[in-house]
């Protein structure tokens, strides 16, 4: 007999709000105006505003087809060749933590999945510890810690008066947190502000983290994308490793290899002994098994092929410089258009000082809404725009929209 249901058993399920970042792309797709521009999600586009598959990725995929590789399950920790190269790329192949086997690396479902696994690990093994996140930060960090039931609080980071780093506030808040907290740090190209500490400031941040017995937890989603150099963008992580910290690093290949939908990344835990590393790795695997069993192979093979082959690796670096260079060019053009067109004398130089994919414009929610409602420019409501989705030819239009929204909306 068929079950007849008049009232849904799911009646109590309320409608979830759209995601603050991915929801912007949904709204963009629904807009039919020709002028529309999607500066919401951080996804690299060409000057023609088309998605971009890197040439090295196509070459690596061709290699994979030629080799006729199979589709059997990977081990829980992922593809061994991937895990090896991803740790080397991050820490440097000659780093003592690698030589001494002190890094527990397991393949994750890109940056997000790797962060989520690490959060589950923190919850299980440090149930009383708290996470510290920057204010502001990538919005999903809060969701990740909430869902993993890791309590978190914010440390000051952005100073709207200087449109720069609130360094003293940051240090004071890290100092005031309970000893042994996990301090989430953006390895480079801070999202959403595009403001990174200087090398001297990183040293001082390391001092206070050390003094407080905190555990650094790096989110590295933009290695190579901030400066165009993989090594320069690993500066902060390598500095902390050099100073002898045990730490966590989540990695993502969404942006630097353009592998967004392949969901490829890793979680690395640097331990003070190889023995601890082995045990940590075993527990990360234990956490992963009931969540997703084992990770997908396609992206892992691409990364292993590109990073593991000297020719492809060099070609990748050139393509990355090209992408980072295009973003720097639109950043420069946008700054010039803003400065030339805005007659109020406002200083727009902060646009040039920020690095990475984004510019944090300082536009508040009502102004950001105006950008979308009047100008069909889609962006997150915190005033962040993705320069990776902007072309040189659209800079002038964007500058007009920003100037209008900034001066005419309270
Ligand atoms: N960490 C930071 C700081 C990020 O900005 C992002 C992506 C991730 C991790 C995770 O990316 P992944 O899971 O694809 O590896 N941030 C994007 C996209 C680019 C997003 O929100 O999912 C953004 O627009 O902020």
From TrEMBL:
Catalysed reaction equations from the record: L-aspartate + 2-oxoglutarate = oxaloacetate + L-glutamate
UniProt similarity note: Belongs to the class-I pyridoxal-phosphate-dependent aminotransferase family.
E.C. no: 2.6.1.1
Keywords: Aminotransferase, Pyridoxal phosphate, Transferase
Lineage: Eukaryota, Viridiplantae, Streptophyta, Embryophyta, Tracheophyta
Subunit structure: Homodimer.
Cofactor(s) demanded: pyridoxal 5'-phosphate
All copies of domain Aminotransferase class I/classII large, residue ranges: 36-402
Pfam families in UniProt: Aminotran_1_2
Example of a GO biological process term: amino acid metabolic process
Name this protein carries in UniProt: Aspartate aminotransferase
GO molecular function annotation: L-aspartate:2-oxoglutarate aminotransferase activity; pyridoxal phosphate binding
Coiled coil: none
Additional record remark: In eukaryotes there are cytoplasmic, mitochondrial and chloroplastic isozymes.
